[in-house]
Amino acid sequence: MPESLGVAVIGAGMAGKAHAAAYRAASTLYRPTLPEIRLVSIGDVNAEFGQAAARRFGYERHDASWQAIAEADDIDVVSVVIANSLHREVVEGLLAAGKHVLCEKPLSDSLKDARAMADAARSAEARGTLGRIGFTFRRTPGIAAIRELIQNGTLGRPLHFSGRYWTDYGCSPDAPMSWRYKGALGSGALADVGSHLAYVGEFLCGEIQAVSGGQLSTAITKRPLPLGAVMGHDHTAVSDTFEPVENDDVASFSAEFAQCIGSLSVSRVAAGHANSLMFEVFCEKGAALFDQRRPSEIGLFLSDGPASENGYRQVILGPDHPYIAGGLAMDAPSVGFGQNDAFGYQARAFLEEVAGLPESESLPRCATFDEGVRNMEVLDAVAESAQNNGKRVAL
Ligand SMILES: NC(=O)c1ccc[n+]([C@@H]2O[C@H](COP(=O)([O-])OP(=O)(O)OC[C@H]3O[C@@H](n4cnc5c(N)ncnc54)[C@H](O)[C@@H]3O)[C@@H](O)[C@H]2O)c1
């Protein structure tokens, strides 16, 4: 095991800050088995954002280019947390320079680029350099708990999955133009939040074998240019110059999983739903539901009592559920849990793998770039279905 690992995060935006904080927290989670984690650099072309994040999260410096990070001898591990269309160039450059890379989802903005990245990651892994992708919701204790209930037979075989990831960051026509609104149909809400939902669907119900009924819709067709830099979903001041929205605000599709059927719906114009990843999975012996707005609990229905007394029960998450025992500073039942904690578990899992800790003594590994390609194949099939009046597209 190395004595220490130097860490950098490229992108100081909304999710970049979550990665920066997560590497800071990683050594404080669970037993002290990691080498020393050095917080070295935040890379962002916007020096103001880079500097602010470096100071806030205690990184030694900030860099204005990803190349500076690729060339730095004191950096071993890099998170890539920038616009999807920029992932390929940066990730391939970092892997070629021997940096272990944790890339944000979706792997890229095009399947072609994603496949090239997976090829590069396989070659890099043969040289001992890791490329992984952060599907953060697999780290959510409630979602991981429901998966366990399916896999250990408590719920039995899934029969029907119904999932939505509704967000409202684009519901105002005044929300400024940003990279999220540019790219081919399917690169909008479907790629942004549909990537998470499709991943969660497969995490619980197994591989999607075909999709149908694909629908993509652009509800707001033009957006004003911002007067300054936009971070994440911020509503900054805008000019009176508009540019067309190129991709989808709303998407829906049906999924044929290996064992069951599912309906999935995503939106970035769902007023009142800032960040609502919600699903219900109906199984042979009961059902479970999760709602990101109440991340510290799941709903569980088991068809085992008399019908007159049966119903969904609220299960508050605690140390008997995945990730929580030792994974929160105060890991008592009912202390609460949030999405930022999941970034901590993700960072910890990646650092454990890079440090060479055996899988049996680590958190579940991060997903591979091949899994990132698989996720994009599902999204691509939905876009193909939508372009062909909802036809069935096999995977
Ligand atoms: N896992 C999650 O829950 C989650 C949540 C949000 C975003 N994301 C993903 O994270 C990525 C970034 O999203 P975001 O919302 O943080 O974006 P953002 O727009 O808030 O931030 C992107 C940052 O990248 C910087 N940047 C642009 N070009 C750059 C370059 N060439 N080199 C270095 N920095 C550059 C920008 O200045 C900005 O600060 C996307 O892939 C997105 O899908 C994941």
UniProtKB/TrEMBL annotation:
Key words, A-Z: NAD, Oxidoreductase
Domain of life: Bacteria
Domain annotation GFO/IDH/MocA-like oxidoreductase: ranges: 144-287
SUPFAM superfamilies linked to this entry: Glyceraldehyde-3-phosphate dehydrogenase-like, C-terminal domain (SSF55347), NAD(P)-binding Rossmann-fold domains (SSF51735)
Domain annotation Gfo/Idh/MocA-like oxidoreductase N-terminal: ranges: 6-127
TM spans (from-to): none
Pfam families: GFO_IDH_MocA, GFO_IDH_MocA_C3
UniProt protein name: Gfo/Idh/MocA family oxidoreductase
Species for this entry: Sinomonas terricola
